[in-house]
């Protein structure tokens, strides 16, 4: 099966959606990383006081530290994820069917989960680099940029495997996260089209197919993001801590594996201040991020003339 024009447009739409969504929440993303890893300069601050302190101590543009690496990563990541989701959903649908509630759940959740795993496997080293750059504080830089970080990690920390540190908890986390987000968005979208078309939908194209209005896309995406992040957050904390292992003496203790990092995080800080550390900021960032991602994806598809899918 070849890569059709529609697949190419889906790929582009996914990449644009990822870049827009991540840039929208980049300052909150950096703050989340600083919170999760208990950076000594910010660990006792709140979300908004932390953002204010970044601007005061570093600069406004420091809010976007690491976003260059994020953009290089997120275009192929999001493009692959959305394209793979459509392909997996079609394949799973043929095998499992979507006529029953269980079948529909298995197809949408499974396709989203597999798409997330596929995308993260291809782009994970760039996420590690981006995390390292975002964790740096002005005046205490370990790396000068993307290439320097990649070369230093590769040369001094064990080659390619060092760039994949934290990969196992990432896969364990992305499976329920991507599965939940795609399933929730698709389900909410279908419910709006089926039961609330007069309030949430508009006609698109020559055949008059119903698509969600912009505000409905944002609402469905935001709710999907909130559900998905709640399910997968402890493993996101574990991933971040493992990615930062070996960067300095304070973070070196998190280089012993997923279960050891989970246990150490729980023993040192408990559930709320450990496994769910930074969760409040994650809701601030996850809801608009997923909302912008799904909305931009569908709007870009409409702009490129891709027919909406149920």
Count of separate DSSP helical elements: 13
Total strands: the figure is 2
Tell me the fraction of residues in β-strands, as a range.
Answer: under 5%
Helix content: over 70%
* Average pLDDT taken over every residue: 89
Cα distance, first to last residue? 22 Å
Shape label? globular
Q: How many strands, what sense, and barrel or not for the largest sheet?
A: 2 strands, antiparallel
Query: How is the largest sheet built, in terms of strand order?
Result: 1-2
* N-to-C series of helices and strands: HHHHHHHHHEEHHHH
State the secondary-structure class.
Answer: mainly alpha
CA-based gyration radius: 20 Å
Which regions contain 5 or more consecutive residues with pLDDT less than 50?
none
Describe, in short, the structure shown:
With 310 residues, the protein is an all-alpha fold.
Question: How is this fold's topology laid out?
Answer:
Blueprint: H1 5-24, H2 26-36, H3 47-57, H4 67-96, H5 101-135, H6 146-156, H7 160-163, H8 167-195, H9 197-200, E1 201-204, E2 209-212, H10 214-243, H11 258-269, H12 271-275, H13 279-304
Antiparallel strand pairs: 1-2
Helix pairs in contact: 1-4, 1-13, 2-13, 4-5, 5-8, 8-10, 10-11, 10-13
Membrane topology: Multi-pass membrane protein
InterPro entries: GDC-like (IPR002167), MCP (IPR002067), MCP_dom_sf (IPR023395), MCP_transmembrane (IPR018108)
GO biological process, one term: transmembrane transport
